[in-house]
């Protein structure tokens, strides 16, 4: 990526600069090459703008859209079961390649949900294609990024689909993997909300090599302890083992389990109460507070509005977590403290493991307000604060965007063939300088004004 840190520098922007850089990395996958055509000065602004639009105001609901078409009921049902529907609803400028019940039954018959999820994620293209644009693909063929690419499970270009304008007015779809054939064709348009979401039907599933034959990682086989240790959560893992909670997790993993594992730095952070003072039962509750008894991948967390029960919940409103979303960042609130969801360690239906930056402290154990624990007062520290006590140099795991959020850039180098071209009506002769920004001009400019005012407001609140 080019350096995004130059260009527009206002007070409002400088305050959120770090966040912008992260957003910048992430949004690249949403908008792909569309953004590469912006001028450098504009990129800074647009990255922020587009990312906020993409996440905060998507207004469509794929489940509702498809519910009007009984021929896609199986496809619709699997979008819900795999939670891909949530991911679709948080994104804009996407195309869903729907399969009818006959095509779906061939796909779902003999595969576990985790495999079906990967297969279906390849049917969500991160670009807007309606019938007209499909027939206007520059040079007649393109590789387009899909949701599968964003999972981090897709090696090489397995996460891309090849869309090719074939002779005789047909449009072919296939895996972008070398040697793949275009086995599927455009059938018809189902529903368009320009340029937010387009749903079109294709004739057959697009199957990337190896996706269906990959050994389905069984949740009961996953060694949660080993995964946590590898992800930098050794303290959490050892507490799970010493208390026996790991057995509870391992049993729950088959039916649906989501873990929020604090990394090792989180346990050393100033302000964490002395956990050795907890009784055994309290420690068990604390550990179970870091788990949900359902498969809740990142896209689902982003759409969560109500308080969620944890494994420790034992009554109405007890040991609940609440979730807030800002842009592409999800924050969990315990009632005492809060923590960013940092990294996705595993997302394999029905088991999800995330790392979090802080130990989540339930009010049931630690009181309603932050306990008078030793605060990280720089004043009281006579020597220059060592790295350990300073939260700012975030650990590698916390700093890196989750793999699901940050797929590699598309393999294509030519801007002409880039997946994200202007929508339908865009003429081929537009200059690269401003063609992309002009396509969505009315919507974008309106949104920029809204977004900038929101950001200014936020910056005032923060300051
Ligand atoms: C399309 O998405 C934008 C946000 O990106 C939203 O404001 C707008 O209402 C959506 N349009 C429709 C027709 O849903
Ligand atoms: C898409 O697939 C067709 C047929 O295999 C191939 O000729 C074409 O080059 C591919 N398109 C891209 C952009 O790789
Ligand atoms: C899981 O991994 C841990 C640590 O890597 C190891 O000690 C343990 O034996 C493993 N458990 C199983 C069932 O393989
Ligand atoms: C682009 O091409 C269209 C016809 O396809 C023409 O009307 C228009 O003037 C051209 N624009 C530029 C900037 O060359
Ligand atoms: C690109 O922008 C310049 C200046 O804003 C404008 O004069 C020109 O017509 C634009 N070109 C196209 C193709 O929109």
UniProtKB/TrEMBL annotation:
PROSITE patterns: FAS1. The chain crosses the membrane at residues 33-55. Residues 371-385, 404-413 have a biased composition (Pro residues). May be a cell surface adhesion protein. The lineage of its organism: Eukaryota, Viridiplantae, Streptophyta, Embryophyta, Tracheophyta. InterPro entries: FAS1_dom_sf (IPR036378), FAS1_domain (IPR000782), Plant_FLA (IPR033254). GO terms for cellular component: plasma membrane; side of membrane. It is found in: Cell membrane. Residues 386-403, 414-438 have a biased composition (Low complexity). PANTHER family: FASCICLIN-LIKE ARABINOGALACTAN PROTEIN, FASCICLIN-LIKE ARABINOGALACTAN PROTEIN 8. It holds the Pfam family Fasciclin. This is FAS1 domain-containing protein. It is a lipid-anchor; GPI-anchor. Residues 59-206, 220-360 form the FAS1 domain. Residues 368-438 are annotated as: Disordered. It comes from Nyssa sinensis. Belongs to the fasciclin-like AGP family. Keywords: Cell membrane, Glycoprotein, GPI-anchor, Lipoprotein, Membrane, Proteoglycan, Repeat, Signal, Transmembrane, Transmembrane helix.
């Amino acid at each position: 990526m080019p350096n995004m840190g130059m260009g527009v520098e206002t007070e409002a922007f400088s305050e959120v600069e770090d966040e912008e850089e992260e957003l910048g990395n992430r949004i690249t996958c949403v908008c792909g090459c569309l953004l590469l055509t912006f001028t450098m000065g504009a990129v800074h602004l647009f990255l922020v703008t587009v990312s906020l639009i993409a996440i905060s105001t998507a207004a469509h609901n794929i489940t509702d859209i498809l519910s009007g078409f009984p021929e896609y009921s199986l496809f619709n049902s699997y979008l819900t079961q795999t939670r891909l529907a949530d991911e679709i609803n948080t994104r804009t400028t996407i195309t869903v390649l729907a399969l009818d019940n006959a095509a779906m039954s061939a796909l779902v018959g003999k595969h576990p949900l985790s495999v079906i999820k990967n297969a279906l994620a390849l049917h969500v293209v991160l670009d807007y294609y309606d019938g007209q644009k499909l027939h206007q693909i520059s040079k007649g063929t393109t590789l387009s990024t899909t949701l599968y690419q964003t999972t981090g499970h897709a090696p090489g270009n397995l996460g891309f689909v090849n869309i090719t304008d074939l002779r005789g007015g047909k449009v072919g779809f296939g895996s972008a993997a070398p040697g793949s054939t275009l086995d599927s064709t455009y059938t018809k348009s189902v529903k368009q909300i320009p340029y937010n979401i387009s749903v079109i039907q294709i004739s057959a599933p697009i199957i990337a090599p190896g996706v269906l034959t990959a050994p389905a990682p069984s949740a009961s086989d996953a060694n949660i302890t080993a995964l946590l240790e590898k992800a930098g959560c050794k303290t959490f893992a050892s507490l799970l083992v010493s208390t026996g909670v790991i057995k509870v997790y391992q049993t729950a993993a088959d039916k649906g389990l989501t873990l929020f594992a604090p990394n090792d730095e989180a346990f050393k952070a100033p302000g964490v109460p002395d956990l050795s003072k907890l009784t055994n039962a309290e420690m068990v509750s604390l550990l179970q507070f870091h788990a949900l008894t359902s498969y809740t991948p990142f896209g689902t967390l982003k759409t969560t509005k109500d308080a969620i029960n944890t494994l420790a919940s034992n009554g109405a409103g007890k040991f609940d977590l609440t979730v807030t979303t800002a842009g592409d960042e999800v924050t969990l609130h315990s009632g005492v403290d809060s923590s960013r969801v940092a990294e996705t360690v595993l997302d394999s239906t029905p088991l999800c493991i995330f790392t979090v930056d802080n130990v989540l402290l339930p009010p049931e154990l630690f009181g309603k307000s932050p306990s008078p624990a030793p605060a990280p007062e720089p004043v009281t520290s006579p020597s220059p604060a060592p790295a350990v006590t300073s939260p700012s140099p975030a650990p590698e795991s916390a700093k890196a965007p989750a793999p699901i959020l940050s797929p590699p850039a598309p393999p294509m180098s030519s801007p002409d063939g880039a997946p994200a071209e202007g929508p339908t009506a865009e003429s081929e002769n537009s200059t690269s300088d401003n063609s992309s920004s002009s396509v969505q001009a009315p919507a974008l400019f309106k949104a920029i004004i809204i977004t900038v005012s929101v950001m200014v407001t936020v910056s005032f609140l923060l300051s």
